[in-house]
Prior knowledge:
- By secondary structure, this protein is an alpha/beta fold.
- Helix content is 48%, strand content 22%.
- The protein has five helices and five strands.
- Strand 4 (74-79) and strand 5 form a beta hairpin.
Amino acid sequence: MATINVTTEMFEKTIADNDIVLVDFWASWCGPCTMFAPVFEKSSEAHPDVVYAKVDTDAESHLSEQMGITSIPTLMVFREGIMVLRQPGAIPGPALEQIVTATKNLDMDDVRKKVAEQEAADQGSTGA
């Protein structure tokens, strides 16, 4: 599957409607972004069961701000709607392959349990 360009309007639906989504936040003027782009594209061709989305941080500045993007490229990985990885910087092909494999192998029941525990701890620390 080739990469898709995602806009602010499409972002949440793309995450919600797909099991695994890798999102590359990038900009055309960013050298490391242009180095990472072919690595991301090649990985998308090797994993047609995974959605590879690209967000142009210049065109989608509101989304980039909303997601807390402070450096590019930044890769975000979502599984079943939960962000499981946020990694700034250009990632080499073998490391990206490890990320995809690890994401596919996640025990999502365990992930959901840890998310719930963290949310409970956060609520306890804020007194809410």
